[in-house]
Amino acid sequence: MSRQNGPEALVFDLVVAAPAIGAVIAGGAIFAIARRHLGVRNAVLAAVVAGLTFGVAWFLMFLFAVFAAILAAVVYALALRRAAPGRALVIALGSYVVIVAGLGGLSYAALAYTA
User: What are the helix (H) ranges across 13-84?
Assistant: First the structure.
């Protein structure tokens, strides 16, 4: 999507381009559904809110994944001191899954119980 090559292009695509495209698609879908029932002005408002929510949620989950990957790398380095490399990798992957699931659960609970 971007004109650059290398890791910065991947970061741009994941942080900016994919959420923007998804937000436009989500907003368009909500507008198409809500226009008939809510009228044009309220449907536009619902589409904008849906698009912003999608973009912010994508960005937060990307940050959660990066944070979990950093912590998993630290866990792997610590586990290498006491375990074989294969077992240390399993421990690190397990910690990654637990961290991402925990942060996802926290964000879901925050959204579900604040609305």
Answer: 18-38, 40-79
